[in-house]
UniProtKB/TrEMBL annotation:
<feature type="domain" description="Glucosamine/galactosamine-6-phosphate isomerase">
    <location>
        <begin position="15"/>
        <end position="234"/>
    </location>
</feature>
<dbReference type="GO" id="GO:0005975">
    <property type="term" value="P:carbohydrate metabolic process"/>
</dbReference>
<keyword id="KW-0378">Hydrolase</keyword>
<dbReference type="Pfam" id="PF01182">
    <property type="entry name" value="Glucosamine_iso"/>
</dbReference>
<comment type="similarity">
    <text>Belongs to the glucosamine/galactosamine-6-phosphate isomerase family. 6-phosphogluconolactonase subfamily.</text>
</comment>
<comment type="pathway">
    <text>Carbohydrate degradation; pentose phosphate pathway; D-ribulose 5-phosphate from D-glucose 6-phosphate (oxidative stage): step 2/3.</text>
</comment>
<dbReference type="GO" id="GO:0009051">
    <property type="term" value="P:pentose-phosphate shunt, oxidative branch"/>
</dbReference>
<dbReference type="InterPro" id="IPR006148">
    <property type="entry name" value="Glc/Gal-6P_isomerase"/>
</dbReference>
<dbReference type="GO" id="GO:0017057">
    <property type="term" value="F:6-phosphogluconolactonase activity"/>
</dbReference>
<dbReference type="InterPro" id="IPR005900">
    <property type="entry name" value="6-phosphogluconolactonase_DevB"/>
</dbReference>
<dbReference type="InterPro" id="IPR039104">
    <property type="entry name" value="6PGL"/>
</dbReference>
<dbReference type="InterPro" id="IPR037171">
    <property type="entry name" value="NagB/RpiA_transferase-like"/>
</dbReference>
<comment type="function">
    <text>Hydrolysis of 6-phosphogluconolactone to 6-phosphogluconate.</text>
</comment>
<protein>
    <recommendedName>
        <fullName>6-phosphogluconolactonase</fullName>
        <ecNumber>3.1.1.31</ecNumber>
    </recommendedName>
</protein>
Amino acid sequence: MPDRKCSFKISLAESEDKLIETLSNLLRRCSEQAKDRKATFSIGLSGGSLVQLLTKALRKSTLDTSNWEFFFCDERYVADDHSDSTFCAYRTEWLSQLPSILDSQFVKADTTKLLDECAADYEARVKVKLGNSHSVPQFDLLLLGMGPDGHTCSLFPEQPATLEETSRLVIPIRNSPKPPPERITFTLPLINNARDVAFVVTGASKSDVVKRVFVDQDKQFPAAWVDPTNGQLTLIVDAGAGSQIIS
Ligand SMILES: O=C(O)[C@H](O)[C@@H](O)[C@H](O)[C@H](O)COP(=O)(O)O
């Protein structure tokens, strides 16, 4: 197996309840560790199935989320109230299920700006919020999903140049192979500077790509580039997604 910079842990959950418990334990650990360091807990969100899973984990955990700040590891370039918006997906879900989480706790992209400006502006917001305007800010936790093509955030295998970005922390994406075509996304320098990065991947249809990304570290898949420099990488999988990596 190729080497990693980070410490890597796999958590295999036998049922959805177990997976939610694992996710809630991760949230507890990361938020408690953050509390020892500073006033807020910064967490980067992804879309897809994570919206529901995270909602269930937060409901189960009864954690105090009042000092948490929610960012978006990627966002679709649509209006905030559009059904494609990842912010809208969380806000809609949490309004009824987690009403204690306030709108002011979301640091969202301003998609009224032109796409390039929207990405640059989000990078600036991240830097201001995380208090590091000169170097790369450090998230406490990034929660990532992975598509069947091995994409993560909005870093797609068809757009390998996005993986080579070294200066910008948030970039615009055009012609995304997965609709909608315009997006913004965190880049690897920001992702790999996080303290904790966790992938949550479910479903037997992803078992092959899970093996190729997390065991073979096959760099044709963007998710295989995630390797937090001084951080912890966790892969949370259900029995289906993990079937080819656990003997
Ligand atoms: O913006 C998007 O299109 C989604 O956020 C997407 O990137 C998602 O995170 C992955 O495809 C995994 O999604 P699932 O966990 O639902 O398979």
